[in-house]
Design a protein that fits this description.
Elements (H helix, E strand, L loop, with lengths): L1 E4 L24 E7 L10 E7 L2 E5 L7 H10 L9 E3 L5 H4 L2 H6 L3 E5 L3 H5 L2 H11 L3 H5 L10 E4 L4 E4 L2 E7 L8 E5 L2 E5 L23 H12 L5 E4 L3 E2 L3 H24 L4 H18 L4 H10 L2 H18 L2
Parallel strand pairs: 4-5, 5-6, 6-7, 11-12
Antiparallel strand pairs: 1-2, 2-3, 3-4, 8-9, 9-10, 10-11, 12-13
The structure holds zinc ion.
The site of zinc ion has 6 residues, from loops.
């Protein structure tokens, strides 16, 4: 699936495609391909983004090790060999976004990642330990191989850093909430949002809330959404999955889902519901909300595959309990 990110000039006019992309101006056209990694055999769950820079390709969100063959086939179809990919950007280190980063680093690519995430790409043992606690014996079939990245290939990036990659300027915007070490990558008026703008599958209106433990944080996420709204984006690329249609509206709608999700879990904790009961009730409410917005049963499963509901319950409950410890 190919997508072109159209830029608008200062007067809002649609600009013609430029032959050569001037890295200094955003009012150009950059070809961006959304590669469907067909996670667990399903379309529209995990995307990877191939940005055709004037000086070479940039890969954003290489995805897990389990989908590496699909990614490589998608790149090959577009005439890109693994050795052509010199720069790989990840929004955060969760395995569905960055599980194959170590493999890419071993091929010689530079991996750009938030400073907190960087050591975990070099030594993924802690990351794998916590994922194994969640996924158990499904680790390998879900995520495949997670290789350590050679330290010299990993570039720790701070908020506001402007990368020069593939002849383009891409800015890191620190966007905590889903994880402390989360960056949104901004190229002119488009952004690669990772999980910071929620989960929105093609053809749907329902924006789901990915709130995993241990770093989910409501106030941080609200600040992130405010920051993203302030960027005046024309296009948001979500790893789960692709582009929506109206970034400003979607960010506002997502904020409501975020607040509502936390309220639901707070209410269940107050009723002293056990964990399994909370997962059942939370899933029921989320599913009912999605169904009301016309989400098909098939897409509901894809949402669940992108974002297990039990994880959001655990993440929000942990966040609320921590808050209670701070302010008993
Ligand atoms: Zn994540």
């Amino acid at each position: 699936m190919g997508a072109r990110a159209g830029y608008r000039g200062a007067g809002g006019q649609e600009l013609a495609p430029a032959e050569v992309v001037d890295a200094g101006t955003y009012n150009s056209l950059v070809q961006i391909d959304v590669l469907d990694l067909e996670f667990q055999g399903s379309p529209h769950v995990i995307a990877s983004f191939l940005v055709h820079g004037p000086q070479g390709p940039v890969l954003i969100e290489p995805g897990p090790g389990s989908t590496l063959p699909t990614l490589l086939a998608g790149l090959e179809e577009r005439g890109v060999r693994p050795g052509d990919v010199r720069d790989v950007l990840v929004t955060h280190i969760h395995l569905d976004h960055a599980g194959s980063a170590g493999w890419w680093a071993q091929q010689g690519a530079r991996i750009f990642v938030h400073g907190i995430g960087a050591p975990h790409l070099v030594d993924p043992s802690k990351l794998l330990g916590s994922a194994t606690r969640i996924y158990g014996d499904r680790m390998d079939s879900l995520w495949g191989e997670v290789l350590p990245a050679p330290a010299e290939r990993v570039v720790a990036v701070e908020d506001g850093k402007v990368l020069e990659v593939g002849g383009l300027e891409i800015t890191a915007v620190e966007t905590p909430g889903h994880a402390w070490h989360h960056h949104v990558w901004v190229l002119g008026d488009i952004a690669f949002a990772g999980d910071a703008a929620g989960i929105l599958l093609p053809g749907n209106d329902w924006i789901d809330l990915p709130a995993p433990p241990p770093e989910f944080d409501l106030p941080a996420w609200k600040t992130t959404l405010e920051r993203l709204r302030g960027l005046g984006l024309s296009t948001l690329y979500r790893t789960h999955f692709g582009t929506g249609s109206d970034p400003q509206r979607e960010l506002a709608v997502f904020e409501q889902t975020l607040i509502q999700g936390v309220e639901w879990v707070r209410e269940m904790l107050e009723r002293q519901m056990d964990r399994d009961g909370m997962v059942r009730e939370f899933s029921r409410r989320m599913r009912a909300r999605a169904r009301n917005l016309g989400v098909s049963d098939e897409d509901a499963l894809r949402y669940e595959l992108s974002n297990p509901r039990s994880m959001s319950v655990d993440g929000i409950a942990r966040y609320l309990r921590k808050g209670r410890e701070r302010n008993p």
